[in-house]
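so the lab meeting is tmrw and i was supposed to have these ready like two days ago... anyway. pasting both below. for each one the top line is the aa sequence and the line under it is the structure tokens. i havent really looked at them closely yet so no promises
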Amino acid sequence: MTPTVSFPRDRIRILLLEGIHCSAAEALARHGYTNVDQRAGALTGTELHDALRGTHFVGIRSRTQLDAAALEAANKLVGIGCYCIGTNQVDLTAAAKRGVPVFNAPHSNTRSVAELVTGLSVMLMRGTFAKSAEVHAGRWPKTAAGSREVRGKTLGIIGYGHIGSQVSVLAEGLGMRVIYYDIVDTLPLGNAMQRASQREVLAESDIVTLHVPETAHTKGMIGASEFAAMKPGAFFMQTSRGSVVDVDALADAVKSGHIAGAAVDVFPVEPKSADAPLESPLRGLPNVILTPHVAGSTEEAQQKIGVEVASKLVGFSDRGTTVGAVNFPELSLAEHENAHRILHMHHNVPGVLRAINDAVADEGINVLSQYLQTKNEIGYVVLDIANDAGGALRNRLKTIEGTIRTRILY
């Protein structure tokens, strides 16, 4: 049985923005979290700050920007849920320094992305979208010229993680030959073959698809020289992160005919709203498929993401569990009956754990269990104590130098 938390669940305020799938609120309600404010759109500026004030948990997707100023306004914030893959819309360092873990759903939309990429590969090789545009315009371009099967063609995957490996499986089902490159040695699925360098994949592939995260290493990793290294007449697909590809170089490669077509779902700068235009040199180019960052946006994926992130927030609120936090030490914590649980977040400096243990000893408290994990500049200690001295100990722990936040969980 889940211990009773020190603060009633129905009084914990949760704000869900950007039309997060109803599965999130339903999952929260199943655990007693019913004080949920759901809003369809993103918020900015003063409106966002006002909404965050007094909120304990906030859920966002990709448009809401939780920068240092927004976090400053969120005076009671305990945790953040990013109901998507990326977390670059959150100032992760500022959140960690406030003792606020950030959770996301890195794998729930894997299948959705993989299916779209597989479909796009067929559409590009057949020139389907260009032909569709002509038919819409009243023309009838019934010809096999430039239209090819994907069977027997080589698909090159750069980034062979959860999504890349799923693309590999689906592509083989279509009869494609799959090669891949990843900075980590990864066992292939099916008959896929690993290559020693990105350049080998580029040079050998009829279609190249990217599935890499946004890091300092991947920023701008595909530019003019990489497109020049691809086979003449090859195709290129980009559904990873907007910062990874130089879109001006891609536009030039398409205009020159060296790249026969492209499909792009993510952009360096994306519109802030559905009414704002996309500014991109790729607009209007033939056989270039542009989609509005929807590779992972299926109803099935959004339902899974809603449940996954909500479950992580519940785990942190109920037990202090931080598994899956992208900016915080990760601890997997079981329930402890007949105990009081205290969370202590602190700067990762020498002497804090000793000061915590000294405080426990001075108060004459029996410790049933103690957990410690650190990550970068943050330390996280969880204490389960046997007797009813939580309040006194919490006051002692708050005075320890380097303390960020102390909470009695239950």
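ok protien two:
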Amino acid sequence: MKPLFLPKPSAIRSAIRDAIARASKLDFAVAFVGYDWQDILGSARAPLRVVCWLTSTNTNPFAVRQLMRRLGTRVKQMDRMHAKVYLAHGANAAIVGSANLSVSALAENDIAGQGEAAVLVRGKNDVAPVVTWFRDLWNSARIIKGTDLNNAERAWQAAHAGGGFRQPRRGASKSSGPRQTAAAIPAAWRPSRTLQELADTVRGMDLGRLAGLKGLAPAKLSVSHKRLIVDTLSKWAGHAGAFRPFLAVPLSQSRRALEGALNSVRPIEERLKDLQTHGRSKVAGLDLTAWTMVLYWWRPDLYPPFNTRTKRFAQAFGFQKFLPRSLTPRGYARWIQFAQVLSARLQLPTAGHVDRLVWEYTK
């Protein structure tokens, strides 16, 4: 078969998903791994080998730690390995291009996405050189030790945190680089007995049952869907009054708002800012807290909600200095990052399981 050019993130993602679904085993060489790798792998159960650049702070070592816990998965490291190759044995397919293992690189839609491209190689003979290349790469790569992960986590936290939720000094110039967020749990930290017991309780929970909005396409949002959202929010909050105005919002505007909220290629802070302030995106009846719940019901593994229960949990276990005092778009982005770090430290499957910790403690 002739190679097929994949000109955008959604095309690459689709090719990878199709190859994964038909594979008997998988080999990935990806420079950087994002916290949302599970979104790409989905429900795939095929054995997986991954080589990544662990010592780069562009790789999320907490995500690597969780990836290593996936059943049938082995992960190695190679410094300055910058390849992006997805090899699917059994499907006789290899995707070779520029996209790392993250949702920002492999977006379902191409709105505000990164510029990515790849080539899909198909057929046993054409894929054979890729198989040989990966075999040599795997044999040359280094095993990841616990100390490697610990060092990478400290480096990543230093690069992405700054030690706490310090606000910029008044009058300080704004950086044009990526905004730093704080998730720095000290390396010497150990969970209390109570927190460890809670983690043991929630570790095996299936969050899929909480995904009441999973698979909902914004363009197909209906009046019945809106009623479901309002009814679920009302049940969660114990009252309906604050959410009812959403039912009167025109469907076209509601669809735009939902499309903006679920557009995972954009940073969550940017999405929530639009929902909070932008005229075309802002809708009556749904404040930031409500939107964090909508996101949670859509993807409970990635979007733990932030509310009064969260604050009680943080106060009880001494996490308040790492979390925002009030819910803002930036504060919610920090909470997600903290939940991802905490989930890795407690050996939980996803950041969403931290919400189950919160629920179990405060129920």
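from a quick look at the 2nd one: The chain has 13 helices and eight strands. The first strand starts at residue 4 and ends at 6. will dig more after coffe
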